[in-house]
Amino acid sequence: xxxxxxxxxxxxxxxxxxxxxxxxxxxxxxxxxxxxxxxHHARKIRRLLNGxxxxxxxGSTADALTLFDKFxxxxxxxxxxLRRAAVELPKEWRTDKFLRRLEAMLxxxxxxxxxxxxxxxxxxxxxxxxxxIGSGGSYxxxxxxALVRHTTLSAADVARAAMEIxxxxxxxxxxQIALFTLEDAAEAPTGERDAISExxxxxxxxxxxxxx
Length: 212
Description:
disordered N terminus; four-stranded antiparallel β-sheet; Glutamine Phosphoribosylpyrophosphate, subunit 1, domain 1; alpha+beta; five-stranded antiparallel β-sheet
């Protein structure tokens, strides 16, 4: 991976866990500019394709929002085929004169797959249903793998606990964690249903602003 890309990943930790038929994606809320924390409650995860896909970003906010839009267009073009869209986006990302300047990484998931997309043309699928990106990604991923192997926690509980561990270790990651799942709202308990709806509204509102 190039230094150009990795240099933009300090202000983010995004983690996804696929466990027991459920996919959970969690992200912290910190935005760091240089050595200063500029925001504590950023939303770095979006629901795409009418809530069937989750996508989180690490890197430049403006670049990531552009990539979200491009990726959603790819999903619609290929009728929700996550793998096909994930392969086609990095191809265009790497070769297009405008897109290849975008500095971000995407972590995308549907009910069956987790994929990491980079501007170098990489599409990476983890072997164990756990993937993470960003400055605290290695901490979150290691913690999540241990929890998956040695506990019976749900995907959502694993994601939250692992993010809390990452927040305690990475100075560019805070404990203001936004957690999304792909469970149907109609099937979720009332409290969880309300939480899912609230997070979705916050994500959409943040994406429409100048900064998440």
